[in-house]
Design a protein that fits this description.
By secondary structure, the protein is of the alpha+beta class. It is about 30% helix and about 25% strand. The protein has a domain at about 30-115: Nuclear Transport Factor 2, Chain: A (Roll). Helix 2 crosses helix 3 (about 50-60).
Length: about 130
């Protein structure tokens, strides 16, 4: 009985820690407005544009406010395969970038945030 309580407490503690972590609200995963994908396709040719466009649409940033886009790759240190893409976007009239991190296998967005002074309501900034 005591073991079961300890195990349950460990699971609850783990769940509490996970919910306390930043960025747990995953980006929007539904179909994107075609204007977002079209805008990203104008700025960069990348296989993740459709899924990244969906995440950007979820931030509320209008598609025409995206002025630049480039992708970076994070590599696995053991075998140097790509494990994550980061889409870096400049927004009209703002410093810094809006960033969408995505899984390299299926381009699933995992996190959206801003860097270097960019501000988007409801989006964390680092």
């Amino acid at each position: 009985m005591n073991f079961a309580l300890k195990e349950a407490a460990s699971l609850l503690l783990g769940a509490a820690l996970l919910t306390a972590c930043a960025g747990l609200n995953p980006p929007q995963q539904e179909a994107a407005d075609p204007a977002y994908k079209a805008r990203l396709d104008q700025l960069a040719n990348h296989r993740c544009n459709n899924r990244i466009a969906t995440a950007v649409q979820g931030t509320g940033v209008p598609a025409n406010q995206i002025t630049q886009l480039f992708y970076t790759e994070d590599l696995d240190s053991m075998d140097e395969r790509v494990v994550r893409y980061s889409a870096w976007m400049r927004l009209a009239g703002q410093p810094g970038q809006l960033v969408v991190d995505a899984d390299a296998i299926d381009c699933r967005p995992t996190q959206v945030y801003t860097r270097y002074g960019a501000k988007v309501e409801g989006i964390p900034s680092y």
